[in-house]
Amino acid sequence: LSQLLEQEVVKCDDCIGEAVKQKIDALQDGQVALLENLRFHSEEEANDPEFSKQLAANADLYVNDAFGTAHRAHASTEGVTKHLSPCVGGYLIEKELDYLKNAVENPQRPFAAIIGGSKVSSKIGVIETLIDTCDKLLIGGGMIFTFFKARGISVGNSLVENDKLDLAKSLEEKAKEKGVELLFPTDVVIADNFAEDANTQTVTIENIPNGWMGLDIGPKSVEAFKEALAECKGIIWNGPMGVFEMEAFAKGTEAIARTLAELTDNGAITIIGGGDSVAAVEKVGVADKMSHISTGGGASLELLEGKELPGIVALNDV
């Protein structure tokens, strides 16, 4: 940290109390005080008013540049702002808001959203919002099998949220009503066990055998997704296409990462919406090719859903 800031860091083994205040009061020009991790104090997540006041006693003004925690109303993100002025956002938060809010409110068109991950339930809000905004919506990851089962397709032992089948149907209907091009994989890589060394094969969606499970999108789906994305000028990606932590099921996710890197080179705005998608582009080595990589998983999703983030709302200016 001292090298990053090019300043001397004074470490404090706690974040409140008279001893800490004395250290901060004694700071010289060019020194920075680094407080202990606030999560060690239960009052932080409880947004305790007294704890917030004690934190504020160490400062004259407040700058929040931690976008990854801006969706939480904690003492250090929301409570402390009641005792300091001005309270402003840093350059990272400014960049996050510029990219993510513009992606929804003023997207470059054609605008595509790629949504992956294991469960529909964790992405309901962002899918509903993006259906209102995007021109194309590409769905991958384990959540596809809930959609397929809702259509009456047998998916073997693939992950399914049986209590979300009606929701899956309604999301498809909404996309159709809005004129959004909704793309699902047509083939998948399946395995007879959830393991790196499992037996695998590639089959069409309609031909998943009993006892087998889908763990990645197949090569024909990758090509279809690439073709759909080719004309897009704005793209946001949240969630992997398969179990990319296992090499046997990482090809779909890695192919999407490389595709977005190529599209960025050709002038498209590409936004990686936090979480596992960030790990994916870093794994492939194309992170530096993306227009923007969000530092907040949950915060990114909530902002894309159109929700107000407590840590942002509490600021006087961003």
Word description of this protein:
With 318 residues, the protein is of the alpha/beta class. It is 36% helix and 16% strand. The chain has a 6-stranded parallel sheet, sandwiched between helices. A 3-stranded antiparallel sheet has the order 9-8-10. Strands 1-2 form a two-stranded parallel sheet.
Shape: elongated
Spatial strand arrangement across the major sheet: 7-6-5-11-12-13
Distance between the termini: 24 Å
Mean pLDDT: 93
Question: Helix share of residues?
Answer: 25-40%
How much strand content do the residues show?
Answer: 15-25%
Number of helices: 13
Q: Which structural class matches the secondary elements?
A: alpha/beta
Topology order in helix (H) and strand (E) letters:
HEHEHHEEHEHEHHEEEEHEHEHEHH
Largest sheet: 6 strands, parallel
Any idea what the radius of gyration is? 23 Å
Count of strand segments = 13
Q: Can I get a quick summary?
A:
It contains 13 helices and 13 strands.
List the helices and strands and how they pair.
Elements: H1 2-5, E1 8-11, H2 18-25, E2 31-34, H3 42-45, H4 49-56, E3 62-64, E4 87-89, H5 91-105, E5 111-115, H6 124-131, E6 136-139, H7 144-150, H8 165-178, E7 181-183, E8 187-191, E9 200-204, E10 213-217, H9 219-229, E11 234-238, H10 251-265, E12 269-272, H11 276-284, E13 292-293, H12 297-304, H13 310-313
Parallel strand pairs: 1-2, 3-4, 5-6, 5-11, 6-7, 11-12, 12-13
Antiparallel strand pairs: 8-9, 8-10
